[in-house]
TrEMBL record:
Family under the similarity heading: Belongs to the AAA ATPase family. CDC48 subfamily.
Protein name: AAA family ATPase
Shown chain mapped onto the complete sequence: 179 to 445 of 757
Domain called AAA+ ATPase: residue spans: 50-186
Region (Disordered): 1-12
Organism superkingdom: Archaea
Lineage, top ranks: Archaea, Methanobacteriati, Methanobacteriota, Stenosarchaea group, Halobacteria
Length: 267
């Protein structure tokens, strides 16, 4: 971003339709986040506390960020995206200050979701902790979460690839006490992801996504997104060899020539 802030805010425009596979996981996310945010009164009546924090864990590129954005967008919540490593790279004292600002901003714009990617870098397990800075930043995060009112209108979603490396204090009651595993997609999941990413593309007759799903064992969503993008670029090179386009230009050309949204080509 260049602004020097490790955070960006707004309401994203991702929908549940942009997520391939992950039906059960999405169901859980909706129950934990969408329900309390839409109907806080139900939780009050039942006398149960809505969650303050939900942890999404699983390998990189499986759709954790996508899912957090989609739920924020579907409930029209303010969304702030912060990166653990970027927060930690700030100068002395700035990490805590920035966390505080993010939580203030969320409270002012509630309903709001604060998404913390690679949260393990902010809150590593003690022992893996290199020292004082982490201790202060974790303490700040815990106190900010403890300070969230129990109205359920601000929820923190943390994402990590290394759930075991996370400070257990963060996973205790009232903090990130709900966890959802976002795993590597199976064949059906891969097919659905391919469907999402080719939705706006003019596919040749006889293209069988089933077959691609069969042949991409081990691919995560991010890999499948690149695969469809590459395929589209190859098609363009073949169809318009005279263009001899640089990568950037090809991206722009594809976006123009096909009714594909820019979001499909990010990352
Ligand atoms: P990281 O841990 O690296 O942040 P992540 O799990 O948050 O990874 P995303 O950033 O959500 O992964 O995924 C990267 C991109 O891959 C998405 O923008 C999307 O294009 C594609 N993608 C990943 N998972 C899915 C999915 N389940 N359905 C559709 N697209 C997906």
């Amino acid at each position: 971003s260049g602004s020097g802030r490790a955070a960006s805010g707004g309401t994203p425009s991702v929908t549940y339709e942009d997520i391939g596979g992950l039906d059960d996981e999405l169901e859980q996310v909706r129950e934990m986040i969408e329900l309390p945010m839409r109907h806080p009164e139900l939780f009050q009546q039942l006398g149960i506390e809505p969650p303050k924090g939900v942890l999404l864990h699983g390998p990189p590129g499986t759709g954790k960020t996508l899912m957090a954005k989609a739920v924020a967008s579907e409930i029209d919540a303010h969304f702030t995206d912060i990166s653990g490593p970027e927060i930690m790279s700030k100068y002395y004292g700035e990490s805590e200050e920035q966390l505080r600002e993010v939580f203030d901003e969320a409270a002012e714009n509630a309903p709001a979701i604060v998404f913390i990617d690679e949260i393990d870098s902010i809150a590593p397990k003690r022992g893996e902790t290199s020292g004082d800075v982490e201790r202060r930043v974790v303490a700040q995060l815990l106190s900010l979460m403890d300070g969230l009112e129990e109205r359920g209108d601000v929820i923190v979603i943390g994402a990590t690839n290394r759930v075991d490396a996370l400070d257990p204090a963060l996973r205790r009651g009232g903090r990130f006490d709900r966890e959802i595993e976002i795993g590597v997609p199976d064949k059906d999941g891969r097919k659905e992801i391919l469907q999402v990413h080719t939705r706006g593309m003019p596919l040749a007759d006889g293209i069988d996504l089933d077959q691609y799903a069969d042949n991409t064992h081990g691919f995560v969503g991010a890999d499948l997104a690149s695969l469809t993008k590459e395929a589209a670029m190859n098609a363009l090179r073949r169809i318009r060899p005279e263009l001899d386009l640089e990568q950037e230009e090809i991206d722009a050309e594809i976006l123009e020539s096909m009714s594909v949204t820019e979001g499909d080509f990010k990352d």
